[in-house]
Design a protein that fits this description.
Layout: E1 10-14, H1 20-34, E2 39-43, E3 57-61, H2 75-83, E4 90-97, H3 103-113, E5 118-119, E6 124-127, H4 132-146
Parallel strand pairs: 1-2, 1-3, 3-4, 4-5, 4-6
Helix pairs in contact: 1-4
The structure holds flavin mononucleotide (FMN).
Protein backbone atom coordinates (compact mmCIF):
# COMPACT_ATOMS: atom_id res chain seq x y z
CA UNK A 1 0.00 0.00 0.00
CA UNK A 2 1.29 3.42 -0.98
CA UNK A 3 1.60 6.06 1.69
CA UNK A 4 0.79 9.69 0.99
CA UNK A 5 3.58 11.35 -0.92
CA UNK A 6 4.64 13.46 2.03
CA UNK A 7 4.26 10.47 4.36
CA UNK A 8 1.55 12.15 6.32
CA UNK A 9 -1.52 10.06 6.83
CA UNK A 10 -5.13 11.15 6.85
CA UNK A 11 -7.09 11.16 10.10
CA UNK A 12 -10.82 10.51 10.31
CA UNK A 13 -12.02 11.62 13.76
CA UNK A 14 -15.65 11.35 14.83
CA UNK A 15 -18.11 11.51 17.70
CA UNK A 16 -21.25 9.40 17.51
CA UNK A 17 -23.96 8.42 19.96
CA UNK A 18 -26.20 6.03 18.03
CA UNK A 19 -23.61 4.95 15.44
CA UNK A 20 -24.92 6.79 12.37
CA UNK A 21 -21.92 9.13 12.18
CA UNK A 22 -19.68 6.22 13.14
CA UNK A 23 -20.87 4.27 10.08
CA UNK A 24 -20.20 7.36 7.94
CA UNK A 25 -16.67 7.59 9.40
CA UNK A 26 -15.96 3.94 8.63
CA UNK A 27 -17.17 4.27 5.05
CA UNK A 28 -15.23 7.50 4.45
CA UNK A 29 -12.17 5.75 5.85
CA UNK A 30 -12.78 2.80 3.50
CA UNK A 31 -13.01 5.20 0.55
CA UNK A 32 -9.67 6.80 1.48
CA UNK A 33 -8.05 3.36 1.81
CA UNK A 34 -9.42 2.33 -1.60
CA UNK A 35 -7.26 5.00 -3.21
CA UNK A 36 -4.14 3.39 -1.77
CA UNK A 37 -3.72 6.07 0.86
CA UNK A 38 -4.15 5.29 4.51
CA UNK A 39 -6.85 6.62 6.83
CA UNK A 40 -6.35 6.52 10.60
CA UNK A 41 -9.84 6.19 12.08
CA UNK A 42 -10.44 7.49 15.62
CA UNK A 43 -13.36 7.86 17.94
CA UNK A 44 -12.68 11.38 19.25
CA UNK A 45 -12.41 10.14 22.83
CA UNK A 46 -9.44 7.99 21.76
CA UNK A 47 -7.63 10.63 19.75
CA UNK A 48 -4.39 11.86 21.36
CA UNK A 49 -4.88 15.56 20.71
CA UNK A 50 -1.19 16.35 20.18
CA UNK A 51 -1.23 13.99 17.19
CA UNK A 52 -3.23 16.52 15.19
CA UNK A 53 0.15 17.91 14.12
CA UNK A 54 0.92 14.60 12.38
CA UNK A 55 -1.89 14.99 9.86
CA UNK A 56 -2.21 17.33 6.92
CA UNK A 57 -5.69 16.03 6.06
CA UNK A 58 -8.36 15.63 8.68
CA UNK A 59 -11.97 14.48 8.20
CA UNK A 60 -14.11 15.46 11.18
CA UNK A 61 -17.50 13.92 11.94
CA UNK A 62 -20.16 14.96 14.42
CA UNK A 63 -23.96 14.75 14.24
CA UNK A 64 -26.29 17.68 14.77
CA UNK A 65 -26.94 17.76 18.50
CA UNK A 66 -28.19 20.00 21.22
CA UNK A 67 -30.11 22.44 18.99
CA UNK A 68 -28.18 22.55 15.72
CA UNK A 69 -24.80 22.39 17.41
CA UNK A 70 -21.80 20.12 17.75
CA UNK A 71 -22.07 17.70 20.66
CA UNK A 72 -21.12 19.84 23.62
CA UNK A 73 -19.40 17.62 26.19
CA UNK A 74 -16.75 15.88 24.11
CA UNK A 75 -16.68 17.02 20.51
CA UNK A 76 -17.07 20.78 20.97
CA UNK A 77 -14.19 21.00 23.50
CA UNK A 78 -12.06 18.83 21.19
CA UNK A 79 -12.83 21.04 18.21
CA UNK A 80 -12.07 24.21 20.18
CA UNK A 81 -8.71 22.74 21.10
CA UNK A 82 -7.71 21.88 17.53
CA UNK A 83 -9.27 24.97 15.89
CA UNK A 84 -6.07 27.01 16.18
CA UNK A 85 -4.01 24.10 14.81
CA UNK A 86 -5.91 23.56 11.55
CA UNK A 87 -4.24 26.35 9.57
CA UNK A 88 -2.84 25.01 6.32
CA UNK A 89 -4.52 21.63 6.69
CA UNK A 90 -7.17 20.19 4.40
CA UNK A 91 -10.36 19.50 6.30
CA UNK A 92 -13.53 17.58 5.42
CA UNK A 93 -16.68 17.65 7.56
CA UNK A 94 -19.46 15.09 7.86
CA UNK A 95 -22.23 14.00 10.14
CA UNK A 96 -25.70 12.62 10.53
CA UNK A 97 -28.73 14.69 11.48
CA UNK A 98 -32.39 14.22 12.31
CA UNK A 99 -35.10 16.80 11.88
CA UNK A 100 -33.09 19.95 11.22
CA UNK A 101 -32.12 21.74 8.02
CA UNK A 102 -28.36 21.32 8.28
CA UNK A 103 -27.73 24.57 10.13
CA UNK A 104 -25.14 22.89 12.36
CA UNK A 105 -23.10 21.97 9.29
CA UNK A 106 -23.28 25.48 7.78
CA UNK A 107 -22.12 26.95 11.10
CA UNK A 108 -19.33 24.40 11.31
CA UNK A 109 -18.18 25.17 7.75
CA UNK A 110 -18.08 28.87 8.69
CA UNK A 111 -15.88 28.09 11.67
CA UNK A 112 -13.49 26.14 9.43
CA UNK A 113 -13.36 29.20 7.18
CA UNK A 114 -11.89 31.19 10.06
CA UNK A 115 -9.13 28.68 10.85
CA UNK A 116 -7.06 29.07 7.69
CA UNK A 117 -7.77 25.44 6.78
CA UNK A 118 -8.92 24.48 3.28
CA UNK A 119 -12.40 23.04 3.42
CA UNK A 120 -13.07 20.10 1.11
CA UNK A 121 -16.38 20.42 -0.73
CA UNK A 122 -19.50 20.93 1.40
CA UNK A 123 -19.91 18.96 4.59
CA UNK A 124 -21.46 15.56 3.92
CA UNK A 125 -24.79 15.22 5.73
CA UNK A 126 -26.92 12.09 5.99
CA UNK A 127 -30.34 12.00 7.58
CA UNK A 128 -30.28 9.48 10.45
CA UNK A 129 -29.10 5.96 9.47
CA UNK A 130 -26.91 5.77 6.33
CA UNK A 131 -28.69 3.46 3.86
CA UNK A 132 -26.88 1.83 0.92
CA UNK A 133 -26.93 5.04 -1.13
CA UNK A 134 -25.70 7.01 1.88
CA UNK A 135 -22.88 4.57 2.53
CA UNK A 136 -21.88 4.73 -1.12
CA UNK A 137 -21.84 8.55 -0.91
CA UNK A 138 -19.51 8.26 2.09
CA UNK A 139 -17.08 5.98 0.23
CA UNK A 140 -17.03 8.40 -2.71
CA UNK A 141 -16.54 11.35 -0.36
CA UNK A 142 -13.55 9.56 1.17
CA UNK A 143 -12.05 8.81 -2.24
CA UNK A 144 -12.42 12.41 -3.39
CA UNK A 145 -11.00 13.79 -0.13
CA UNK A 146 -7.98 11.52 -0.51
CA UNK A 147 -7.14 13.17 -3.82
CA UNK A 148 -8.04 16.72 -2.72
C1 LIG B 1 -29.92 15.04 22.28
C2 LIG B 1 -30.11 15.07 20.80
C3 LIG B 1 -30.19 16.29 20.14
C4 LIG B 1 -30.39 16.35 18.76
N1 LIG B 1 -30.49 17.57 18.15
C5 LIG B 1 -30.69 17.62 16.80
C6 LIG B 1 -30.81 18.88 16.14
O1 LIG B 1 -30.74 19.95 16.75
N2 LIG B 1 -31.01 18.86 14.79
C7 LIG B 1 -31.13 17.70 14.06
O2 LIG B 1 -31.28 17.75 12.86
N3 LIG B 1 -31.00 16.49 14.68
C8 LIG B 1 -30.78 16.43 16.01
N4 LIG B 1 -30.67 15.20 16.63
C9 LIG B 1 -30.75 13.98 15.81
C10 LIG B 1 -29.36 13.40 15.53
O3 LIG B 1 -28.55 14.34 14.85
C11 LIG B 1 -29.50 12.16 14.67
O4 LIG B 1 -30.27 11.18 15.37
C12 LIG B 1 -28.18 11.56 14.24
O5 LIG B 1 -28.43 10.51 13.33
C13 LIG B 1 -27.39 11.03 15.42
O6 LIG B 1 -26.14 10.62 14.95
P1 LIG B 1 -25.29 9.49 15.67
O7 LIG B 1 -26.02 8.17 15.46
O8 LIG B 1 -23.97 9.52 15.02
O9 LIG B 1 -25.21 9.81 17.14
C14 LIG B 1 -30.48 15.14 18.01
C15 LIG B 1 -30.38 13.92 18.67
C16 LIG B 1 -30.20 13.87 20.05
C17 LIG B 1 -30.09 12.52 20.72
Amino acid sequence: MRKNEDNKNIAVIYWSNSENTEIMAEKISNGIDETGQKADLYNVSQFPIERIEDYDKVALGCPSMDGEALEKNTFEPFFEEIESKLKGKKVALFGSYGWGNGEWMRDWEDRIGHTGARLFDEGLMIKEFPDDAGRHACVEFGKAFASF
